[in-house]
Specification:
The complex is a heterodimer of chains A (473) and B (177). Helices cover 71% and strands 0% of the residues of chain A. Chain A has 473 residues and is an all-alpha fold. Chain B is elongated, with a radius of gyration of 26 Å. With 177 residues, chain B is of the alpha+beta class. In chain B, helix 3 (59-84) runs antiparallel to helix 4. Classes of the chains: A mainly alpha (473), B alpha+beta (177). Chains A and B meet through helix 1, helix 6, helix 8, helix 16 and helix 17 of A and helix 1, strand 2, helix 2, helix 3 and helix 4 of B.
């Protein structure tokens, strides 16, 4: 109760100070930032070596063989697609409901979406083996007389993910334009040239703001159903097959909940890292951290419920093979990973229920990483057990993924980390204009008499012109 | 021939800038209308439209056009691709399968809705190659509010006096012709 009046942000902070603090973050991160870059590069090089080896030798080195046609590549593909969900989806939802606490944290969350999608996109390519034939999925008029199978959810994936990547990258970029103009006006050298081009001549005129507001709102409205549709479609890769354990009606909401869950956990991790790397304690406050943790806890409970629904539907269903797959998860060779998933996904989030723990950055860092370990295991537990225990008993076996698969999965985290770290060094990871809006509104609320004065003045004008209020989009 | 001026007044906060605009609206500077006022600010004030009056923003129309185009193009593109390829045995299933096309058409609706929205934003707000304000201060990107107007020499001095009355921090001016 002692934190009940804690503010999300110090509303007395001056606008000029916001510019100074955020722009400074582009210049001098802590040494830990450079160490993180080095770690990411090292991880990425593991994947590069493994991929070169796989490319030269053939897909056989990944041990993707009957019945384990889909291994870690597809499990990790789902993981990264899921990770991409929270950034844009939560940002869009919180934007349209005017939850202003999103403002200091949405920028990096949206960047996380874009880079997660870019990472996810690699996995189907790597899984393809003959990467040079990737263009076959494009529905162009083919001289080989081959068209993609439009009934296959795999083709839907290509459409949905391309749409989501394009839309979320544009959402991120459009939301950054006013900040890029601030950067343009305050830096020199190559950065000035870059920001001049990217800010597209933004000057903050009423005409620009008016169109900006409508555009941003409309894009947010499009992105919410789009994000839901993307992960529903990814779930269709499984649910529309007749494989035991995959042919489940609750898969789409289960996938969407899992996606939001892992994305929220990743937001917590990145929140703590950025707060430390760039000394952004003033903007990424403990109060905001608490709100994100509470949201994550709520989503964790939804995910737990959908898990139980899935187990119940399989257990009480009339598919004995699906039931056997479920039992093999409980007590078979996958059991340690399955129970680890349940612990990390359903038990560990209770740590987020305790105020003291939520406010402890180091604890939350560990918890958020472990939550995502649980969510990665969840994806593996979707792919692995079904393939190892399907309809043909003679093909039942347990496959431990090869070192090549592990190296590429490991390296994908380095790739994502590298893209993200470069982004936050080149572009402001906290939205300056939106934080200004946040402190402006909060200051007005805090000083009621000033707000009253503003209101009176606006009302006077309205009365004089007789025009109706057009507040909102 | 009368000279024409472009004037930029920089204010420390919205309150003073809005007060100046309210005076212009009440014709305290004869010959100057609120329709000539352009405001530059570091954030968008929620009451800005009440102060400046209702000004058009046609982005949603483009969004609707994009969504309709997306549905139409998406479905026709897929259907033509499917209908073109009759070699593949369909196994008694329809050549143009509606259930799967609904999913893909929906994605196209969103994609083109978003693309048209973004393009209309760039065009209508004068970004990219659009006309920019000639007088611009970097202080607007920090914490100051700018009122920019173009007016002739008869109204130039009274407007500056009005700005000063509302504690303008700085006035920049240039002769247009």
């Amino acid at each position: 109760m002692k934190y009940v009046n804690e503010k999300d942000i110090n509303e007395e902070i001056k606008w000029a100070q916001i510019n100074t603090d955020i722009l400074q973050s582009l210049q001098n991160p802590r040494k830990a930032y450079w160490i993180a870059i080095a770690v990411c590069l090292a991880m990425l090089s593991c994947a590069v070596v493994a991929e070169v080896y796989q490319y030269q030798t053939g897909l056989g080195v990944a041990d993707l063989n009957r019945p384990h046609m889909w291994g870690l590549y597809i499990a990790t593909f789902i993981f990264w697609i899921g990770m991409s969900h929270s950034g844009t989806l939560l940002s869009a939802i919180l934007h349209i409901i005017h939850a202003d606490w999103r403002k200091p944290i949405y920028r990096f969350a949206e960047a996380m979406t874009t880079f997660s999608l870019m990472t996810a996109g690699f996995f189907p390519m790597l899984h393809l083996g003959r990467m040079w034939n990737l263009y076959w999925v494009i529905p162009y008029v083919s001289d080989r007389g081959i068209w993609p199978n439009f009934r296959s959810p795999l083709v839907w994936d290509a459409f949905a993910i391309t749409t989501y990547l394009t839309s979320s990258a544009l959402f991120l970029f459009i939301g950054m334009i006013p900040d890029l103009a601030i950067c343009r006006d305050n830096v020199t050298g190559w950065r000035r040239k870059l920001y001049t081009v990217l800010s597209l001549g933004w000057q903050g005129t009423d005409r620009q703001w008016r169109h900006f507001r409508k555009t941003y709102m409309l894009m947010a409205c499009f992105l919410i159903p789009l994000a839901v549709s993307v992960h529903s479609i990814v779930s269709s890769d499984f649910a529309m097959s007749i494989m035991p354990g995959w042919h489940v009606t609750s898969f789409p909401p289960y996938f969407v909940a899992g996606a939001l869950y892992s994305g929220c956990a990743a937001i917590i991790t990145l929140f703590i890292l950025l707060r430390y790397f760039f000394r952004l304690e003033e903007y990424m406050t403990v109060a905001l951290m608490e709100k994100t943790c509470k949201l994550t806890f709520a989503i964790a409970m939804v995910w737990t419920y959908l898990n139980l629904v899935e187990f119940g539907a399989t257990w009480y269903g009339h598919d004995p093979v699906a039931k056997e797959v479920l039992i093999s998860k409980f007590v078979g060779p996958f059991a340690p990973y399955f129970w680890a998933m349940m612990f990390f996904g359903s038990v560990l989030p209770f740590a987020l229920a305790f105020e003291k723990l939520r406010r402890h950055m180091a604890t939350m860092m560990v918890v958020s990483i472990l939550l995502n370990v649980g969510m990665w295991l969840e994806r593996w537990m979707i792919v692995g057990p079904t393939l190892s225990h399907a309809y043909a008993p003679e093909a039942w076996n347990f496959m431990w993924p090869s070192i090549v698969q592990w190296a590429i999965v490991f390296g994908s985290f380095g790739w994502f980390g590298l893209l993200f770290l470069i982004f936050v060094k080149v572009f402001p990871c906290v939205s300056m204009y939106e934080v200004k809006e946040m402190v402006f509104h909060r200051r007005r609320e805090a000083h009621a008499e000033v707000a009253e004065k503003f209101h009176r003045r606006a009302a006077d004008v309205q009365q004089a012109t007789g025009r109706p209020s057009v507040e909102g989009a | 021939m009368k000279k024409k001026y472009r004037v930029l007044g920089l204010f420390s906060d919205f309150e003073e800038a809005f007060a100046a605009i309210a005076d212009i609206r009440q014709y305290k500077v004869p010959g100057v209308s609120v329709d000539d006022v352009r405001l530059m600010s570091p954030i968008e004030h929620p009451e800005i439209e009440e102060v400046l009056g209702d000004r058009p923003a046609h982005v949603p129309k483009f969004t609707l056009a994009g969504a309709i185009f997306g549905i139409t193009f998406g479905f026709l593109f897929l259907a033509s691709a499917q209908a073109n390829f009759l070699v593949q045995p369909q196994g008694g299933k329809p050549v143009v399968p509606l259930p799967s096309n609904i999913v893909l058409t929906y994605e196209m609706l969103i994609l083109f809705g978003v693309l048209f929205t973004v393009i209309s934003f760039l065009l209508l707000s004068g970004l990219l190659f659009g006309k920019k304000e000639k007088l611009y201060s970097e202080k607007i990107a920090v914490d100051q509010i700018g009122i920019i107007m173009e007016l002739d020499e008869d109204t130039f001095e009274p407007l500056k006096a009005l700005f000063r009355q509302h504690k303008v921090l700085e006035i920049r001016e240039e002769v247009i012709k």
